[in-house]
Amino acid sequence: MSETSKEPKNTAETAQARALEKDWRTVSAFLREHPGLIREDADLLSDLGLWIKAANIVEFGPAALARLSAAKTREKAARRQLEATARANFAAQAQTHAAVTDLMESRNHADLARRVDEIARLRFGLVAGVIALEIPGGVPAGWRPLPADGADGLLGGGRLALMGPPGPAQSLFGEQAEEVASIAMVRTAIWTPARQGLLVFGSPQAQGFTGDMGVELVAFLARVVERMAERWPVL
């Protein structure tokens, strides 16, 4: 095709574009002067994919979507927290079962106390674990002596367990007492007639043991310590 044949075509297209532009300016100005013509034509609005957003109409769509998004976010956060709690509980139970196996291998009272402390430090990341026993009467090597009614004095009369700040029980940890920021303490009763005592674990963190935590696993370890200690008499 020659340059001469292309020129008329380009000229025609240019002229058409200018005419359309002129016509659109006319239509646009007309619509601005008569906006009701479009607002009142529902079919035209539908064809154009438009909708009216009047000042007196509440737009529910975005608010509902925002609530749905927030609910999904909360649900996801709650699910992650439950999963993390389940994993932590499972890990704690696994460590507790391993700890029981360690305790059952004790050879005497002193070895039992050593294993309790070792379990606290190596398996649970705590400062220490101690076994305490009320006097009068002999106290095995490695155990902490308590005065008469000492268990009641530290736990409170009739209480079986205590989780939270160490209070006076901090002294049971000896040289490591200053490192203990919270404790888990469970009452024990060993031999017949029963002698009262305590199994106490110390955490370096203030929130390591808190009053709203369950005591089931620590109480379970206390029952194992009782049964193991009863294998041997106090010399």
Outline the structure in words.
With 235 residues, the chain is of the alpha+beta class. It has helices at residues 3-33, 36-39, 42-48, 60-104, 109-123, 150-155, 216-229; strands spanning 128-134, 144-146, 161-164, 182-190, 195-203. It has a 5-stranded mixed beta sheet. Strand 4 (182-190) and strand 5 form a beta hairpin. Helix 4 packs antiparallel against helix 5 (109-123) and helix 4 runs parallel beside helix 7 (216-229). The longest helix has 45 residues, at 60-104. It is rod-shaped, with a radius of gyration of 40 Å.
Question: Descriptors for this entry?
Answer:
235 residues, alpha+beta, five-stranded mixed sheet, 7 helices, 5 strands, rod-shaped
- The helix content is 40-55%
Quickly count the helices: 7
How do the helices and strands follow one another from N- to C-terminus?
Answer: HHHHHEEHEEEH
What is the residue-mean pLDDT, rounded to a whole number? 83
How many E strands?
5
Strand order of the largest sheet: 2-1-5-4-3
Question: Which range does the strand content fall in?
Answer: 5-15%
What structural class should be given to the helix and strand makeup? alpha+beta
Biggest pleated-sheet summary: 5 strands, mixed
Task: Summarize the structure in short.
It is built from 7 helices and 5 strands, in the order αααααββαβββα.
Task: Set out the fold topology.
Layout: H1 3-33, H2 36-39, H3 42-48, H4 60-104, H5 109-123, E1 128-134, E2 144-146, H6 150-155, E3 161-164, E4 182-190, E5 195-203, H7 216-229
Parallel strand pairs: 1-2
Antiparallel strand pairs: 1-5, 3-4, 4-5
Helix pairs in contact: 4-5, 4-7
